[in-house]
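Sample pair:
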Amino acid sequence: MTAINFETCTGWALIHEGGYVNHSKDPGGATNKGVIQRTYDGYRDRMGKPRQSVRNITMAEVMDIYKSQYWDLINGDDLPAGLDYAMYDFSINSGVSRAVKFLQEILGVKVDGIMGNGTLGAIQRRNDISGLIQELCLKRWNWMKRLSTFSTFGKGWTRRVMGDIVDGVQFKVVPQTLADGT
């Protein structure tokens, strides 16, 4: 369906993920371009490379991690345009299993956190993908508002999930290109 969307969706996700941060209230700890240190350590171990600070992650490593740990696990290539991004961004920000479970609850299929044939078939049967995306984003946002860290990160999360205009406030987002190597 949307196999060509991986790079586009990654560029959009990186708008919200930004660069290196190590915020004391972020349970993920040190993070760069959305990759936490723990994930980066595991990746470097798997690749047979010495561990290093996530501050030094390359764009090639980011792309490899995003593809293998998020895009492929949600079957991003098999999702309709728009839903691919909504699920991918949710997965990067909150984990694949949680994102899939939220979608499965909406679709009324077995909730197991795995994007398998039952879930993909239910998506195919859905006539209103736009409505599904809106329902998923609203469910995600309402869940985020209950998190203890919402007072710290809520403004960015709201913009990330709900779009450019929330409660009458206009947000302007400038896409980051993947070609610039950042």
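Strands lie at 31-32, 35-36, 165-166, 169-170.
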